[in-house]
Design a protein that fits this description.
Elements: H1 2-8, E1 11-17, H2 23-30, E2 43-46, E3 54-58, H3 65-75, E4 81-85, H4 87-91, H5 104-107, E5 112-114, H6 121-153
Parallel strand pairs: 1-2, 1-3, 3-4, 4-5
This protein binds iron/sulfur cluster.
Iron/sulfur cluster is lined by residues 20-21, 23-24, 58-59, 86-88, 93-94, 117-118.
């Protein structure tokens, strides 16, 4: 049933590492492996914000990443759903005393948080699956509005 729901609409996830140790990113990559197979839900992981429905952000937001993260958020089309993954993204974690300006929710709005250092792939997958129906609903609304706009101008 859940697979049917997700197959109706694909969800594009853009992963952004804002200066973490890559541990969280490895767990995200594990979501693509046959054990978790995130693509069975129609969820595609890449690094293109212009095509993303969901931004998955890892890392503590180091100083060079502050403006870059804002730019990526601006480039992301609506519904602009953000999932912060890992202790660093949530509270700067082990990088708290370093040159960081995070956590992520200080820089951009965050819709879901996945704690852990690093979180398990199942927890990351669970967070994306919980947030995805909202992303799909918003996306459908936007597409409908666009279609209606096109009709009214014809
Ligand atoms: S939460 Fe842990 S695994 Fe993830 S980036 Fe930070 S230190 Fe690395």
């Amino acid at each position: 049933m859940i697979k049917e729901f997700f197959r109706k609409r694909d969800i594009n996830v853009c992963v952004v590492n804002t200066g973490g140790c890559n541990g969280c990113d490895i767990e995200i990559v594990s979501c693509l492996a046959p054990r978790y197979d995130i693509e069975q839900y129609g969820i595609h992981v890449h690094n293109n914000p212009r095509e993303a429905d969901v931004l998955v952000v890892t890392g503590p937001v180091t100083l060079p990443w502050k403006n870059r993260l804002k730019e990526i958020y601006e480039k992301t089309p609506e519904p602009k759903i953000v999932v912060a993954v890992g202790a660093c993204a949530l509270s700067c974690g082990i990088f708290k005393e370093g040159h960081v300006c995070g956590p992520v929710d200080k820089i951009i709005p965050v819709d879901a948080k996945v704690p852990g250092c690093p979180p398990r792939p199942a927890e990351i997958l669970d967070a994306i699956l919980k947030i995805a129906p909202d992303a799909i609903a918003s996306k459908e609304k936007i597409l409908k509005k666009r279609k209606e706009g096109v009709k009214s101008t014809v």
